[in-house]
Amino acid sequence: MAYAHTNSKGQTYFLHSKEVTLRGGRKQRIFFFAREEREGALEEVPEGYMVVENKKTGLPMLKRS
């Protein structure tokens, strides 16, 4: 089961991770929230991060602790 976060508006988002290739060819791991559970879903918040919510939109995002 993926990590789920319910925001202040009652919407549930699932945490995902994906490795992307930047223009210079460097690979970087990104984290994002989606409304559906898809491939790349994580079971817990990565160590050293915490979930915060955008006050205007209610979208959750990861922030370094």
Can you tell me about this structure?
By secondary structure, the protein is an all-beta fold. It has one domain. It is built from no helices and five strands. It has strands at residues 4-6, 12-21, 27-34, 49-53, 60-64. The strands form two sheets. It has a three-stranded antiparallel beta sheet, with no helix packed on it. The radius of gyration is 13 Å and the shape is globular.
In brief:
Helix content is 0%, strand content 48%. It has no helices and five strands.
Structural class: mainly beta
- Contiguous helical run count: 0
- SSE sequence, one letter per element: EEEEE
Could you tell me how far the N terminus lies from the C terminus, measured between alpha carbons in angstroms?
24 Å
Gyration radius over CA: 13 Å
Quickly count the domains.
1
Q: Please give the share of residues in helix.
A: under 10%
Sheet with the most strands? 3 strands, antiparallel
Tertiary shape: globular
Task: Give the total of beta strands.
Answer: 5
Main-sheet strand order equals 1-2-3
Mean pLDDT, to the nearest integer, reads: 95
Low-confidence stretches: none
In what range is the share of β-strand residues? over 45%
